[in-house]
Task: inverse folding
């Protein structure tokens, strides 16, 4: 079986490959120790159905991707800022695939920040939990044959979750956010941000109802990836779901 190549890390770190892997895997880095600099390439107010957001486009030296912060209110110097750290999902957000809850999570995060009138959505360009779009669709093909989301990645020789949050930590630092309330069901995100020196004071659950196509995906994340989700979430449109 052809094993797709591993994607590169979100950023390039100084040091040998072995030293970098050790530091990344053990979350030994602090955001202040990360090499290079992050800059805002462009910034403008953007009207949305939820009101006006300030959109800032970030870039990190050595990384050709553009990451986005959707900002509501003046977050500089603020503590306990509501933050949704969201990774790109083309299939759900653009083409409305029903296989996951990414689109609903993104909208729920924006809605909560609009309600609070203060917060940030960090939109990170790391498709498919960091494995890229082509590998994600390869994993979908295996899922169509019965594999769950974890086993499909492993069958391709890929990690369960290859995402990194270095950029998110640097974006928060650049915006001057003192501490965050992280909107997520994934405790690994909390651990990773704290390992990068970000003060996470609270995890805010992001529970959205699944549909019949995403229910199994969410259950796999609950059982195999430690996501804090209620067991057997009732699927929208599934009268027999428990």
Result:
């Amino acid at each position: 079986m052809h094993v797709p190549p591993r994607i590169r890390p979100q950023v390039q770190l100084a040091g040998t490959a072995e030293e970098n892997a050790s530091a990344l895997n053990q979350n030994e880095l602090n955001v202040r120790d990360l090499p290079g600099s992050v800059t805002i390439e462009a910034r403008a107010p953007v009207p949305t159905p939820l009101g006006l957001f300030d959109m800032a486009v970030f870039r990190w030296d050595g990384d050709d991707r553009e990451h986005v912060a959707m900002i509501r209110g003046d977050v500089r110097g603020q503590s306990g800022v509501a933050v949704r750290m969201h990774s790109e999902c083309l299939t759900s957000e653009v083409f409305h695939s029903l296989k996951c809850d990414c689109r609903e999570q993104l909208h729920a995060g924006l809605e909560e920040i609009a309600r609070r009138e203060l917060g940030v959505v960090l939109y990170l360009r790391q498709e498919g939990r960091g494995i890229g779009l082509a590998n994600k669709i390869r994993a979908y093909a295996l899922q169509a044959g019965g594999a769950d989301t974890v086993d499909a990645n492993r069958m391709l020789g890929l990690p369960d979750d290859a995402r990194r949050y270095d950029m998110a930590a640097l974006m928060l630092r650049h915006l001057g956010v003192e501490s965050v309330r992280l909107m997520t069901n994934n405790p690994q995100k909390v651990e990773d941000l704290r390992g990068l020196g970000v003060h996470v004071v609270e995890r805010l659950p992001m529970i959205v109802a699944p549909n019949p196509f995403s229910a199994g995906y969410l259950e796999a994340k609950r059982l195999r990836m430690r996501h804090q989700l209620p067991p057997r979430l009732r699927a929208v449109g599934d009268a027999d779901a428990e």
Observations:
- The first helix runs from residue 17 to 25.
- Helices lie at 17-25, 90-93, 102-116, 133-144, 149-155, 166-175, 187-195, 215-224.
- The beta strands are 38-48, 51-60, 67-72, 81-87, 119-124, 180-183, 200-204.
- Residues 38-126+163-224 form a domain with the Rossmann fold fold (CATH 3.40.50.10990).
